[in-house]
Amino acid sequence: MKGRVPLVRALASLWMVIVLAACGSGPTSGTTDKPFAGKTINVLSWEGYQEPDWVDAFEKEHGVKVQVTYAGSVDEMFSKAASGSLNYDLIFMDGGSVTRYNKLKLIRPIDVGKLKHYGELIPNLKSINDKHVVSDGQTYAIPFAWGSLPLAVNKDKVKEPVTSWSALWDPKYKGKIATIDDANNQVATTALLLGYPDPYNLTDEQLAGVKKKLIEQKPFIRSYYSGFEDGKNLMASGEAWILFTQGPTMITDLAEQGMNVEEVIPKEGALVWIDNATIGAKTENPDLVHLYIDYLISSEVQARLILKTGYGGINGQSVSQLTQEEAKKAHMDDPSYFDRLVYVAYPESFEKRVKLWNEVRAQ
């Protein structure tokens, strides 16, 4: 969230802190029984997921310490977890990576019966996620946050409706298209456009088709960008009229700056990442980690996460703690939104995709 926080938001934040400390769906208030007092939860996480807004209350209530190590990329996350230099109790990762960790026995099954908020997960989001995190009847990950990768369209410049990823190949917008410098997402999205049934399990022939299509696109591209601010600046300056975004928050930020910008989920679908919480295989305090996960997926914490980061939440009841505008901004007002999204899964070969993208950029 950017900009000055108005008084009403400050009061709301104060109220939420009180809720987190006292509400029955968070840690139990007033008890002198702290069976985990003195314990530490070692967490491997993305930035923004372990904020004092919600971590402090849990630490105080249970007399524990949440020790966080941050990673800046998927590869760094995996490297830290696999190195064994520190046994992480809780590891956050996109659902598509869960199989990779599970194959190396870096994570352990989660007892969903110990999670009283598990039944509050948004049903179709949970259904999408379960296909990638449930194996042999055991659940290895619990969703925590999500975000889609839609198109942004400047409606002052592009008058006709944009309905397909093919807009990124349209000669009408030559020099006014910006797209992400990201091998995996570029390959998957182009595969959707080409009608391939599984954008994360491509044959060599299909990968060749993707490469050819991306090379055809190059003459129309104004810029390949790599960061949120870079992408937003291209739109705000008018250099780009159509943008392959890194998330809806880019669009809402531009709208708040006064741009007439529209989010588009193309007819072929758009990608969605769902980050999950997993339990490290060598944790010595599984009951404490289950307790913490349950706290993190509670509606109170999820509402705080949405307001703090702009990401989508996974607890359907968190909507009741948001204004109508806040819920709409995070796509928490429309459960059917997930039905138009394609899960970011583990691909057939990261190496092949990176090589393909490098060859496209070198043309």
Automatic annotation (TrEMBL):
GO terms for cellular component: periplasmic space. SUPFAM superfamilies: Periplasmic binding protein-like II. It is found in: Periplasm. The keyword Transferase does not apply. GO terms for molecular function: polyamine binding. InterPro entries: SBP (IPR006059), Sperm_putr-bd (IPR001188). One of its GO terms (biological process) is polyamine transport. The keyword Hydrolase does not apply. Residues 1-21 form the signal peptide. PROSITE patterns: PROKAR_LIPOPROTEIN. Its main location: periplasm. It comes from the Bacteria. Keywords: Periplasm, Signal, Transport. This is Spermidine/putrescine ABC transporter substrate-binding protein. It comes from Paenibacillus flagellatus.
